[in-house]
Amino acid sequence: MQSKNRILLSHGSGGKLSHELIQNLFVKYFNNDYLDAQTDSSLIKTTGGEISFTTDSYVVDPIFFQGGNIGKLAVCGTVNDLAVSGAIPKYLSCAFIIEEGFEIEQLEIIVKSMAGEARNAGVKIITGDTKVVNRGKCDKVFINTAGIGELPSLHRHFGFGNTIKPGDKIIVNGNIGDHGIAILAAREALSFKSDIASDCAPLNDLISKIVGNPASIRFMRDATRGGLATVLCELAESKNLGIEIQEDKIPVNEIVAGACEIFGFDPLYLANEGKIVLIVDGNDASNILETMKKHPLGKQSSIIGTIVETNPKKVLLETSVGGRRILDMLAGEMLPRIC
Amino acid sequence: MQSKNRILLSHGSGGKLSHELIQNLFVKYFNNDYLDAQTDSSLIKTTGGEISFTTDSYVVDPIFFQGGNIGKLAVCGTVNDLAVSGAIPKYLSCAFIIEEGFEIEQLEIIVKSMAGEARNAGVKIITGDTKVVNRGKCDKVFINTAGIGELPSLHRHFGFGNTIKPGDKIIVNGNIGDHGIAILAAREALSFKSDIASDCAPLNDLISKIVGNPASIRFMRDATRGGLATVLCELAESKNLGIEIQEDKIPVNEIVAGACEIFGFDPLYLANEGKIVLIVDGNDASNILETMKKHPLGKQSSIIGTIVETNPKKVLLETSVGGRRILDMLAGEMLPRIC
Lengths: 339, 339
Fold this sequence. Notes:
Chain A is α+β, with helices and mostly antiparallel strands. Chain A has helices at 16-30, 33-36, 70-83, 104-121, 178-188, 204-210, 227-239, 254-263, 285-293, and strands spanning 42-46, 49-58, 64-65, 68-69, 88-99, 124-133, 141-151, 169-172, 217-222, 242-246, 276-280, 302-308, 315-318, 324-327.
């Protein structure tokens, strides 16, 4: 082991090695005027109006998986939380907690990937922090990103869902459960390992195509931990409305469906990192669907169900074989450390 | 062990237990309209102009110590990073990474303390995240806070220090090294345990008293990891100026000085969590000092040195016995996980 290629406690001391790490890694790759100033906080010019503010910590295990890594996830996840609120994601903070002994080369791959994904999503990583903990006191690396987005004055906060009403349609932008199964595969070295990639992607560009007529969009949420079912259960509960979805309209990759059968998982509860659930005006649903299908991240979009007056607070799944079952919020934990 | 009194992996699943935890702990104590909305991001109305954005993760070990705990630190630290930029701290995010099995009662003490400190500092905790990792994969609890502050139009970003010039004076607002020694004491169960408390405090109120005349204030920075010496070394280096400080003007508690002698630490490099270093116009230094001394967090304020033309990029310490030594940036790590 060459210690100079590994993270030392001193990299988190705030002293010389911290400065080297910031300069040679973070400033190099994240590369923007805000970071160059190297102050503890960054200045942002606002134009007035509303901004959206969010945070998430990422502790995914393993840190590298088919379709992404913890860094890509940390950028996309926070970008998506901003985008589903109706905001245009603009700025991210980025804070690392790193285990002593972690290979700097691996950190570099993660940081590079974050920089690329930030460019891809049109956001700037403008402030950060690095802490190092003794070996065995964390698991390789944890990343927190907080994000700021600008809310155009014509947009509402789409996360509230206060205008949802019976007759509204539910849309998802493609196959569900890919992220969950990709992580499972990376953990277990399963035979389907190379066949399924995480859907981890920034959704702000797709979302920007459909928020032009905000009156049609009642609600947006990315279906991450807890999956599609949990988003819908939360919504039915909080809005005192019924939700009916049809199993055969819900897009699921065959490999994911197969893996779920083998391992006893339900794709409805598997985590996604590139899927939004939309509630839209029933009259505009097919137009919105068409627009989404034209986007690379929306090709498999599907109208999966309807908001109803009957059975308030309940989510009913009409199964492919014609049965009905009530979906509940995720009660336990299917796959810990999925994001 | 009653498992219901401990954090389970399911508390981080995004499902039922996550919701209970959010409702019974975070929403209860942080208690504001923003959180009540329970969306993944929160909306902030801005008045235009500039905002300051910062982040820090807190991994202090132990999580409870004389004068504070990891939660109090997470609020004060980020409030201070905003305040030294010249901003008025307004909003915090708060993300927990918790070890499976952590006592919920301890978490409640931390959350309560964060809520109290946020009230004390006049900031609102408006968005958050909770992740749970398997036992042994983190150390009890890590907290990230990101913060947003509003920069009044007459303030500059005091973190840049672009107007510093020879003749300017250096002020600190009191005893240095208290936080470092409080952590050491909590770790080692030393005899001075009960005598020294961390200086952990939000400095925004003190700072608000002295930024009325921004032309006089050239630079502000809180002296955390790396201590007073590292802040000054960074400044001398980046501004290509010399700094001279006098040992007998630097306020150090006797107990801290004694502990440093025993353990071979230098108080100049010990972490603080309630100390600012100010560079001010030499002509206004005594006025600013008087104002600071009237504030509870500035009673021991002292002018400790001067910006000079000689010895650019160097920090010279004039010792109490009349010698001179050059201070360097912290090279190794005296006390890991100090914040």
